[in-house]
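Per your request, structure below.
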């Protein structure tokens, strides 16, 4: 059942402030341009088309979320953007230059914890700049600044196994930022965290994003997370992975937890849900269960 308040609210309706924000956003330079991107994988059962004709742009300092059903190509997309996978068609431009292979201009944060277990927090954050050939006290001072920014200065000499999941992801964010990337590419970074830590991490990330010159592309399965964090949401559909819709989130900034129950928040969530879980699919969710209880002994 659709709550009546949503029924007569169009998620495309924007207040004048929100409209103005989008006008300004689209006047900013394009940081990431994805042009007719396609990817097929050869498999023993034949070719799998993971992505087909994917087109979109991300503007400087935009926060864009990518959402879509499992297997629609979200991770494949982000791996191509990171230069970890090569596209079959189309191209990716970062600041107008074709992406070819990994580079420090793109920071990655994955769902699984990817810190080097044998290095301390500070050494993990210094790793990227050191690989770039930088050395000396400035690298260390810089690393401290990033660790401070994610609120972990007391833990700079701790090892990853001494940290909670949320803390590890904060270090992963600091490590990605230490390379001064143009864009942060995040693949379900909070997917393994409990609900409370996840909410805390979303707030940390919004604070970081507001205060740095950073553009973010963030994959999630969570509708609330997508609406809460994004300027725009790229909705992908599966088989093959194509752009279904790009939603301009009508929820004003700065974001706060109170907004979760506002009509524009719920209407946006409802729209994504419609796109990802069409009504025809939910009929298949009913189990073919034979009755094994006596009539009249119902619990509902
Ligand atoms: N290396 C590979 N070889 C063959 N097929 C692959 C490979 N990587 C991905 N695929 C296929 O490409 C499609 C997209 O996979 P991908 O992991 O990008 O989806 P996803 O949207 O990230 O899914 P999830 O939400 O479950 O993380 C799937 O059908 C998957 O089986
Ligand atoms: Mg994935």
């Amino acid at each position: 059942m659709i709550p009546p308040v949503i029924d007569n609210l169009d998620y495309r309706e924007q207040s004048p402030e929100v409209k103005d924000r989008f006008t300004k956003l689209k006047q900013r330079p394009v940081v990431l341009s994805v042009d007719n991107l396609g990817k097929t994988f050869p498999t023993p059962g034949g070719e799998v088309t993971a992505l087909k004709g994917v087109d979109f742009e991300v503007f400087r300092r935009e926060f864009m979320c990518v959402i879509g059903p499992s297997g629609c190509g979200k991770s494949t997309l982000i791996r191509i953007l990171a230069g970890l996978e090569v596209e079959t068609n189309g191209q990716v431009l970062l600041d107008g230059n074709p992406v070819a292979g990994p580079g420090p201009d793109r920071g990655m944060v994955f769902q699984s914890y990817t810190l080097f277990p044998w290095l301390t927090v500070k050494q993990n954050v210094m790793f990227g700049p050191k690989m770039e050939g930088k050395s000396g006290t400035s690298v260390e001072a810089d690393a401290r600044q990033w660790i401070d920014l994610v609120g972990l200065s007391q833990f700079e000499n701790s090892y990853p196994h001494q940290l909670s999941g949320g803390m590890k992801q904060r270090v992963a964010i600091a490590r990605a930022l230490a390379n001064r990337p143009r864009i942060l590419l995040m693949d379900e970074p909070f997917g393994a965290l409990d609900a409370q830590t996840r909410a805390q991490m979303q707030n940390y990330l919004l604070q970081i994003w507001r205060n740095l010159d950073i553009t973010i592309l963030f994959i999630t399965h969570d509708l609330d997370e997508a609406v809460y964090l994004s300027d725009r949401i790229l909705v992908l559909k599966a088989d093959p992975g194509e752009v279904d819709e790009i939603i301009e989130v009508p929820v004003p900034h700065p974001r706060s937890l109170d907004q979760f129950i506002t009509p524009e928040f719920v209407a946006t969530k409802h729209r994504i849900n419609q796109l990802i879980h069409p009504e025809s699919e939910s009929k298949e969710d009913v189990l073919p269960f034979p009755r094994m209880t006596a009539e009249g002994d119902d619990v509902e």
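The CA atoms of residues 83 and 100 lie 6 Å apart.

Regards,
D.
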